[in-house]
Amino acid sequence: MSVVSNILEFNQEFVKQEQYKEYLTDKFPDKKIAILTCMDTRLVELLPKALNLRNGDAKLIKNAGAILTQPFGSAMRSILVAIYEMGAAEVLVIGHHGCGMTTLDSKAMVAKIRASGISDEVLSTLENSGIRMDRFLKGFASAEEGVMHSVNMIRNHPLVPVFIPVHGFIMHPETGFMEQICDGYTSREEEKASERP
């Protein structure tokens, strides 16, 4: 039996037994937070448990490395929707130690893409269209660098209100321990103080 067949079989029993009832909530985050985090498999259950999050508490946005690659990409759009349409009042960017994006080698990945059957013609067409693989598939030197990149992109985004605190954290993917590397409250207060005459 395939993975999808197993999933569908389980799903039918889940619904039949009404196990969904304990997860019922609405679309608005009860804790009024949006979280940008990594898609790492170790964080799927660990992150919500380590933060005491239940279904309905937060808007959870996941991608590779918790990295915003474009100020007007889909992850940033999700953050803006969370703020303006869902009532999120704070944003947390949570990276983690041992992230695969710290070791991502764009050249090696392009070689794997080629080996999977994607032609050089396709890659050349993308490059000629302005999609540079070395930038598109770029990782970062450390989890801290990745988190601060995303924090700064959110904080300085022209559509994010100045009163929205943006916090940065690094999580240990085995224990769930969180280290705060950027306090969104303090950062906003420092910015306001530096603007005063």
UniProtKB/TrEMBL annotation:
Coiled-coil region: none
Annotated family: Belongs to the beta-class carbonic anhydrase family.
EC numbers: 4.2.1.1
Catalytic activity, reaction form: hydrogencarbonate + H(+) = CO2 + H2O
Pfam families in UniProt: Pro_CA
Residues reported in the UniProt entry to bind Zn(2+): C38, D40, H96, C99
MF terms in GO: carbonate dehydratase activity; zinc ion binding
Family matches, as CDD domains: beta_CA_cladeD
This protein's UniProt keywords: Metal-binding, Zinc
Alphabetized SMART domains for the sequence: Pro_CA
Cofactor, how bound (note): Binds 1 zinc ion per subunit.
Protein's UniProt name: carbonic anhydrase
InterPro entries for this protein: Carbonic_anhydrase, Carbonic_anhydrase_sf
Cofactor(s) this protein requires: Zn(2+)
Lineage: superkingdom: Bacteria
